[in-house]
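Sequence dictates fold. Below is an illustrative record:

_____
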Amino acid sequence: MGHSNLSCPQLRCSSLLFVALLLLCFGVVISATNDTDKLALLAFKAEITSDPFGSLNSWNDSTDFCRWDGVMCSRRHHRVMRLDLDSQKLSGSISPHIGNLSFLRILNLNNNSFSLEIPPQIARLRRLRVLYLSDNSLMGSDADELSFLCSLTNASDLSVFGMAGNRFGGMLPVCIGNFSTTMTHLGVGMNMISGEIPIEIGNLVNLQKLLMMENLHSGSIPSVLGNLSNLGLLDLSGNCLSGRVPNSLRNLQRLVKLYLHQNNFEGPIPSYLQNHQSLMRLDLSSNNFSGSVIFPMVGNLIYLNLSQNHLSGVLPMEIGNLKHLVSLDVSGNILDGEIPGSLGNCDGLIVLGMQDNLFHGSIPQSINSLKSIEELDLSINNFSGEIPKFLEAFQYLKKLNLSYNHLEGALPTQGVFRNASVAFVVGNEKLCGGMLEFELPRCISKNSKSRGVHKLKLTIAVLFGLLGITLVVTFLYLYCLKRKKKEPISSCLDDSMLNLSYGTLLKATNGFSSANLIGAGSFGFVYKGLLQDNENSIAVKVLNLTWHGALKSFKAECEALKHMKHRNLLKVLTACSSIDYNGDEFKALVGTIGYAPPEYANGSQVSREGDVYSYGVLLLEIFTGLSPTSNTFRDNLNLHNYVAEAIPQRAIEITDPALLHEGESHNSSQDSLHESNRIFQECLETIYRIGLACSVEEPRRRMSIDKVATQLHSIKKKLFAASLLL
C-alpha cells in the first residue's frame, strides 16, 4: 500500500491545527475548574445572612473571583488557595459547597457568628493545611457532635486546627489521634466538651500548642502527654480534671506556657518544675495543691500564679532569682514566715499578691526596689510594725491593700495614701492619722503623752483612794454569792427545752474526761457526749466560772440562743444551771453536733470559713438526704466521714433515692443513656468532693466560696450539655 505524501506547508498547517485543538480543550478544562471555584464561593456567599462590613460586596461577576476580598489564588492554576474572612462579623451557616474548593490550603473563619454544624463536605479539602473556626457559634450534629473531626484525618497536611469558643459538646473521639503527624497547633477549648482526655492525643508528637481550656474534661492528665516533647504551650485550665500532675510532663523541656488553673489537682507541685528553665508563664491557681512552693529556680519566668491552693511553709529565697518576673500571686494559701528580702531583686514586678496567708514580721525595706509596682496586696496576714514611708514614692502604684494586719503608727499621707479608693488599711486597730477619708483616730503626739503621764499619776492616786471602797464591795458581793449558790437556780431557756441534770451530763461525757474534750474556748471547755436515754450525740460547753466574764457570757448566750432558730446554726437543746457533786456552781450549754463548724465550739468568732463549713454540710445533706444530727452517725462517724468513705465507688449508693428517681424521669434514647449516666455520676462525685472540701475541720484548708461557685457553674454547664438539667 502506498503512503500519501504531505508537503511541508501541509504538515505545518496540520500541526498548528492540532495545537489549537489542544489549547481549546485545555482552556475548556481551565474554565470549568475556575467556574467550580467561583460557583463554590458564590454558594458560600448565599448562606451569609449578615455582612455588616460589606466584606463580600466585591464578590460579583464584574471582578475576577481571585480579586475578591479575602480570596487568594495560585498563579499557576488560578485556583483558590486561601480564604480569609477573619473578624468580619459574618452571620449564617457554612455552605457545603466549601468542599468544592479542592485547592484550598488555608481557611480562616475565626471570630464571626457562623452557626449550625460544620458540613461533612469539608472532608474533601485534602490539601488543607490551616483551618481556623474559633469564636463562632458552631455546634455538632445531634447524633455525634464531634464526628466531623474524623473526616479531617483525610487532610494529610493539616498542621493547624482551631475550633475554640464554639458550642460543641460530647466527647473527643479517639480518631483525633489519626490527625496528621505534621499537626503543630490543636485548639478545642472554650466549648462544652466532656469526658476524659483521649490518650490518642499522644500520637501527635509534633504538637507545639495544645489548647483544651474551659471545657468539662474530667479524670486525670494522661501520662502520654509527656510524649509531646515539642510542646511549647499546654492549656488545660477551667476543667474538672483531678488527681496528681503526672511525672511524664518532666519531658516537656520546651514548655513556655503551662496553664492548669481552675481544676481539682491535688498533691505537691511537681518538683521537676524547678528545672524547667524555658517556662515563662506558670498558672496553677485554684486547685488543691499542697506542700511547699515550687517554681523554676532560674530562667525567664515572667508570670507565676500559685494562688487559692493549700500550700504551706515559707516563700523560698530563690524567688529573687526570677529577675524577669512581672506578676506574682501566692494569695489564698497557708504560707507563713517573713517576706524574703530577695524579693527586692524582682524589680520588674507590676503585680504582687500575697493576701490571705499567715505571713508575719514587718514590711521589708527590700520592697523599696519594686519601683514599677502597680498592684500590691498584703491584706489578711499578720504583718506588724509601721507602714514604710517609701510606699508614698511609688508613682505607678494604682492599688495598695494592707487591710487586716497588725500594722501600727501614723498612716502616710502622700502618694497612694492620698486616695482612700485605691489604698485600703481597714482592720489595723493601731493605725492612726492619715487623710480624713480613712476615718482613723488622731495620733497622740509626744506632748500629749507628757500630759498623759501627769493625768496617769492623778488617776493612780484616785484609784488608791477608791481601793478601800472596792475591797469592801467585793467582800459583800462574795458573801451574797455564797448565799445565792444555796438557792435553786432555774434555766434561762424555755421550759420546752430538755431538762438535763448535772449527773446526766456527767455520765454522757464519761465524767468530763479528757478523751471527750473537743475544744477549749474563752470561758470554758467543750466536751462531746452521748445521752443514754436516746443515744443522741451532744456537745457540752462547761463554763469555768472562776474566769472573769464567764457568767456574763453564759447569760448573753442563753438570751441570744433562746430567740435563734436556723437549720445552719448549732441547735441548742438546753442549758444546765445546777450544783456539782463538790457543792460548786455548775453552768453549761448543751447542743447538737451538726452544721456549726468545730472552731465555733472553741470560742472562735463567726467567720467566712465557718459559713463555708455550714454550706458544705448542707450540700452533703441535700444529696444524701441525711441530717448531720441523724442517729445514723454514732461514735466517731459523722456526715463528712460517711461521704468521704463512700467516694467515689459508692457515690450512687449514698445518694438520696428521690434525686436518683428525678434523674431517671428524663426521656433518653438507649444510645445516649450510658453516656448520660456517666456524666451524671461524674457530676455527683464532684458535688460530693465540693461538700467534703468545704467541711474539713481545719478552717484554712476549706475550699473558697469563689472556687465553689466556679465548680458548680462547670457542673451546671456539663449537665446542660448532656440534657440532664432542664
Q: What stands out?
A: The first strand starts at residue 48 and ends at 50. Confidence is low (pLDDT under 50) at residues 22-32, 449-496, 564-569.
